[in-house]
Amino acid sequence: MQPTLKLSAIVSGPNHRQYFDPQAMKELEAGIRAAGGVTQPILVRPHPEREGVFEIMAGERRWRAARTVHGDDYDMPVVIRDASDAEARSLGIIENHFRDDTSDVEQAEGAASLLAYNKGDKHETALQLGWNVDTLERRLLLLNCAPTVRSALNERRIKLGHAELLAGLPASRQDKVLGGVIEHKVPVEVLKKQLGQFAKRLADAVFDTAQCIACPHNSAQQASLFDESIGDGFCQHPSHYDELTMAALEARAVPLREQYPVVRFVRLEDGFAPLTVGPDGPMGVGATQYTACKGCENFGCSLSAMAGSYGEVHESLCFDAACHAKKVSAHRRTVREAARTSTEGSAPADAGPKPSPRKAATPASGATAAHHVPARVVTYRIEQWRKWAANALMAQPQRNQRVLAALVLAGDMRAVVRDRYAEVAAKVTGAATSTKAASGPLPLRKAIEQADSFDDQQAATMVRAVAAAAACGIDNDGLETILNYLEVDEARSFVLDGGYLDLLTVSELESLADEVGLRQAMGGAYAKARAGKRSDFIKALLAVPAFAYAGAVPKAMRYPRRGFGRTDRTGSRTGAAPAPAASQVACDAAEAVSA
Fold this sequence. Notes:
Blueprint: E1 4-6, E2 10-11, H1 22-35, E3 42-46, E4 54-58, H2 60-70, E5 75-80, H3 85-97, H4 104-117, H5 122-129, H6 133-141, H7 147-154, H8 160-166, H9 171-184, H10 188-196, E6 200-201, E7 218-219, E8 234-235, H11 238-259, E9 262-266, H12 287-293, E10 299-304, E11 313-318, H13 321-345, H14 375-395, H15 397-409, H16 418-429, H17 444-452, H18 456-470, H19 476-486, H20 498-501, H21 506-516, H22 518-522, H23 525-531, H24 534-541, H25 584-594
Parallel strand pairs: 2-4, 3-5, 9-10
Antiparallel strand pairs: 1-5, 3-4, 6-8, 7-8, 10-11
């Protein structure tokens, strides 16, 4: 039996269609009346934020027409499907294309939204839409059209080719040219010829145009669609103009890359819409989450490479639309819950017994705020984790034995890094040189003779070093497992120093300073330090009197906790045990393994 939902329980989804042709809608409504209802179900999904509400993925025209004909109590035939935000957007674009076609601008807007959810991956977006990348870029180009041009295309007063050509002009010029195109019914090919030679206006250049004065490609002529009084020169050598433009923009990007993890150049064909992230406002994520966002690999700025806005910078942007939507949604829920709790708590005293209030949702705290750790920090922390695991394995003989046995059982002995192990042998035995992996493995007889030369203490250290050497080669999941088993305490291993801070951009340094308490410890000196150069900012952060840099561990350096149910020798469940003190030779060996 076909499932249905009340129209009142269905809301519009992320539909890119903006123009609903009145005549086509009247015809659809007439068809619904004649058929006694909607015969083709619409596609919906459970609303991501509102319980009991469903969001349209495809079929908004039928939904609108049914409301007009039958009202909100009508039982609408539906197909309910769980879908991600990206899937919902792609399904809507495809569905609309094969029904009453949306305009190319509306398709472009839908494609841009999907592209944002795919983190700017054009190949993935084109694949989801059944397009090729060239088609996608041509659609995205239309987002640079002025509102008047978009409307003209939506209403079929101009052709797609007209809009694509007008998209290359600054918005301030598009209206004038559009008027001429419509009034004189200028064909696409004629417009292309007239605009092509004037595409690069020197007055808009971001580079020094002094070099262009005597250039034979500099033209002050005007096309018939432009005012004769403008008098601007245009470059008729597009590739050279673009080369000079990108060189100038690259120079502007250098200081920005010290500020942000992401600096993105925005071109005409990118269909880019800035997604601002901040603590407050309609798209706010809350103060604590915003602090975390500034340390995220998807936080940054855009730098325009488009005519009319060359070099324009948009700051404090998020480049992961799906993550941003989740953070905004979480903050809205927090605000709503807090408001509801406040209302329930302010009821009059004589209002009688009231239901027990819900627990107020507190704003995201440092424990719940999340972000994507930049790849360079991930690489650094894996190196540090390997050192911590190796040192802990050398310092905990009993657990070392069990890890060694587990490595054999798991078939992970291949993780032992032989050349690192050979360095340990040299440290332990005092040999002047170590056996390098490049020279190949020793014959078994010679290796036994060498091992037999160790005294008992050296032999015990070398056995422990096997597992420690494995920490240098095991995969990341195995490394996290070992860290959890050994109950390594990051605060005893990590020191906040220049080696770590040098990895971070200014926005990431800001996030770190808030997280570990450096900003509070600096007081009024923080703002002055933040306003300076990145190198001076780092120096100031590392020179705060009485701040405990040892043990100030940022979340990005902590490993994920996964509990182990272990037993002591009597069979009782045990928790963390203090690590036994290691001998100096064991510490030297661990350092050799993890160097």
